[in-house]
UniProtKB/TrEMBL annotation:
<dbReference type="Pfam" id="PF00067">
    <property type="entry name" value="p450"/>
</dbReference>
<keyword id="KW-0963">Cytoplasm</keyword>
<dbReference type="InterPro" id="IPR001128">
    <property type="entry name" value="Cyt_P450"/>
</dbReference>
<dbReference type="InterPro" id="IPR017972">
    <property type="entry name" value="Cyt_P450_CS"/>
</dbReference>
<dbReference type="GO" id="GO:0004497">
    <property type="term" value="F:monooxygenase activity"/>
</dbReference>
<dbReference type="GO" id="GO:0005506">
    <property type="term" value="F:iron ion binding"/>
</dbReference>
<keyword id="KW-0349">Heme</keyword>
<dbReference type="GO" id="GO:0020037">
    <property type="term" value="F:heme binding"/>
</dbReference>
<comment type="similarity">
    <text>Belongs to the cytochrome P450 family.</text>
</comment>
<dbReference type="InterPro" id="IPR002397">
    <property type="entry name" value="Cyt_P450_B"/>
</dbReference>
<keyword id="KW-0479">Metal-binding</keyword>
<keyword id="KW-0408">Iron</keyword>
<keyword id="KW-0560">Oxidoreductase</keyword>
<dbReference type="InterPro" id="IPR036396">
    <property type="entry name" value="Cyt_P450_sf"/>
</dbReference>
<keyword id="KW-0503">Monooxygenase</keyword>
<dbReference type="GO" id="GO:0005737">
    <property type="term" value="C:cytoplasm"/>
</dbReference>
<dbReference type="GO" id="GO:0016705">
    <property type="term" value="F:oxidoreductase activity, acting on paired donors, with incorporation or reduction of molecular oxygen"/>
</dbReference>
Length: 422
């Protein structure tokens, strides 16, 4: 395979349904490949585990929003091409800005705060399962997976519950193919709405907070406190951008993490039986499910700040680079029988949450939500099964995410009394 791989391999319907055979071919041919999107945008893919892990922490690969916007040029994402100053967040900055932002956010996004969300997550999941229990069938994407993370992050930030549905629509618009949510909302619209709403909410919460301490007031109040009182404070623009990032990162990836995990268990009866027989396997099962078919296909786009040799290729300065997590996580040099789902696998060093300084801030919360959702579904519905053959399951045709359109399931209808599975 040449360094310039066929477009059709990466953007066909078959690829989005199951990218792994194509990614295996890329990985076997080498660690780095230059590809063209159908619209002509040139990017480099890094496909092997060793090189991917190194690239994730390589500071020569910049995530700075201004660099990315410049490299994208006319291909800039809908919500970037109208931003004269791209938002500076943990996902769009390099050191020293990233170091400062991470330090400030780490003071608010604490393990204690996140662990305190466990009963909240359980309550939200139980309520959603109560709603579908009498029906005997449901689309788990729209009824459960798409709702759990948005309600959790809204509660964590202190966003009124009645606004959660709007947040869901706005974040969905950012990730759907062609930047169209299906109701006429573009990615630009979604980002504009998010920023406007959060700017207004920050103003309201700042007034409510006054001179009081932010303890117990929610994550957004804690961020406002950092913004207003820390000597190395966030700018107002950074504060809004950070709130937007937490909302987006806390939603779409976890939607896909929950739905992909359930799908892969339901189409692997042997693994599902193992988990039902021994629920203590769940934490390592979640790690294996994240490795096997996680929510992110690629990491955030990066730009090479100098020529970077990888294998027998040289990624040139200024090139756009995608680190293909889905390929790295099935590298046979690291994982035995990588195309087999094995929930008894231990020491799973997957890259789904990144590596190095950009390791995902919300990984603990995402794991918690996936774990609680899977445990609760299996406990509540002992005969949970797919409602359609596996080949009829449809995937969104978007490269950065492994995202289901729907996950139709069937189960024996039940009364609406909630069962405790905590």
């Amino acid at each position: 395979m040449s360094s310039k791989c066929p477009v059709a391999d990466l953007y066909s319907h078959d690829y989005f349904h199951n990218p792994y055979p194509t990614l295996t071919s890329f990985r076997e041919a080498g660690p780095a490949h230059r590809v063209l999107r159908p619209d002509g945008l040139e990017t480099w893919l890094i496909t092997r585990y060793g090189e991917a892990q190194a690239a994730l922490s390589d500071l020569r690969l910049s995530m700075d929003g201004r660099r990315v916007q410049q490299a994208l040029g006319a291909f800039a994402y809908g919500f970037l091409d109208r931003e004269s100053d791209p938002p500076r967040t943990l996902l769009s900055s390099d050191p020293p800005d990233h170091t400062r932002l991470r330090r400030l956010v780490n003071r608010t996004f604490t393990a204690r705060r996140i662990e305190g969300m466990r009963p909240v997550v359980q309550r939200i999941v139980d309520g959603l399962l109560d709603a579908i229990a009498p029906l005997g069938s449901a689309d788990l994407v729209s009824t459960v997976a798409a709702t759990v993370p948005i309600e959790v992050i809204c509660e964590l930030l202190g966003v009124p519950v009645e606004d959660c549905e709007s947040f869901k629509q706005w974040t969905t618009a950012l990730f759907l193919p062609n930047s169209d949510s299906g109701d006429g909302m573009t990615a630009t619209d979604g980002m504009r709405n998010l920023r406007k709403y959060l700017s207004e909410l920050i103003a309201v919460k700042r007034t409510e907070l006054g001179d009081a301490q932010s303890d117990g007031q929610g994550l957004l109040a804690a961020l406002i406190d950092v913004r207003d009182h820390d000597e190395d404070r966030l700018s107002e623009h950074e504060l809004v951008s950070m709130a937007v990032q937490l909302l987006i990162a806390g939603h779409e990836t976890t939607v896909n993490g929950i739905s992909n995990a359930v799908l892969n268990l339901l189409r692997s009866p042997d693994q599902l039986s193992l988990l039902r027989e021994d629920p203590s396997l769940l934490p390592q099962a979640v790690e294996e499910l994240l490795r096997f078919d996680g929510p992110l296909e690629t990491a955030i786009l990066r730009v090479a700040t100098e020529d970077i040799p990888i294998g027998n290729q040289v990624i040139p300065e200024g090139a756009l680079v995608k680190i293909v997590l889905a390929s790295a996580n099935r590298d046979p040099e690291v994982f035995d029988e990588p195309d087999t789902l094995d929930i008894t696998r231990t020491g799973t060093r997957h890259l789904q949450f990144g590596h190095g300084i950009h390791n995902c801030l919300g990984s603990y919360l995402a794991r918690m939500e996936i774990e609680i959702a899977v445990r609760s579904l299996l406990a509540r519905f002992p005969d949970l099964a797919l409602a359609v053959p596996t080949e009829e399951i449809r995937w969104r045709e978007i490269m950065i995410m492994r995202s289901l359109v729907a996950l139709p399931v069937v189960f024996t209808p039940q009364r609406t009394n909630s069962l405790s599975v905590a």
